Structure formats: structure tokens, C-alpha cells
Amino acid sequence: MNQTKTEYVKSQEQVRYHTCHWPDCKKQVPPAMWGCSKHWYTLPPTLRSKLWAAYRPGQERDMKPSEDYIKVAREIQAWIQEYLAWRHVK
Q: Domain extents for the chain?
């Protein structure tokens, strides 16, 4: 691959139905992206960095994300649930 990871992700198009991974967000995003900009930047930088480090270009095509990627994705979903509960209490 002659592209950087960033260049690869930015070059990917909407090739199939794929929504943001934030609960209840219906925004369509290219499969190479975790989510829409709004929700991506709602995540703490540490979680974004961990997911980015675990992402392998092409995993959205061969449907074989690494165990590390899945682990971080689950960590993100747990963080989102805590975040939403905290926002609800406020």
C-alpha cells in the first residue's frame, strides 16, 4: 500500500450500507470509518487513538478486524453507555 492509513480511509467511499457505530445514529459513513465526525470527536482522544492503532486498512472489506480492534470497539461501546448515562443524569 502506497497510501498512509489516513489517506486510505479518506479515499474510501460509501460502497454499502454502513452507519456510524454510535448507538441510534443513522448517519451513513464509509465502511472504513468508525463513525460520523460528530460522534468520532465525542470519543476521548485516548479511545480514538487506540482504535486507530488497532485498525488495519482493508479490514472493512475482508470483514476480519483484529482481536485488538474488536476489544477497543467494545471498550468504546462501554464508554458510550457510561457517557450517555452521565448525560442523562445531568
A: 8-89
Predicted local distance difference test score (pLDDT) of residue 13? 81
Which residue type is seen at 81?
Answer: Q
**Distance between CA atoms of 19 and 3, rounded to whole angstroms?**
25
Instruction: Describe the crossing of helices 45-54 and 67-89 by its angle, rounded to 10 degrees.
Output: 160
What pTM, to 2 d.p., does this model score? 0.85
Place of cell 479515499: 11
Question: What is the gyration radius of the CA atoms in the chain, in angstroms?
Answer: 14
Q: Which three cell numbers stand for residue 76?
A: 468504546
Please write the tens of the pLDDT for every residue from 29-62: 999 999 999 999 999 999 999 999 999 999 999 9
d(CA 16, CA 51): 22
33, 9 contact by CB (below 8 A)? yes
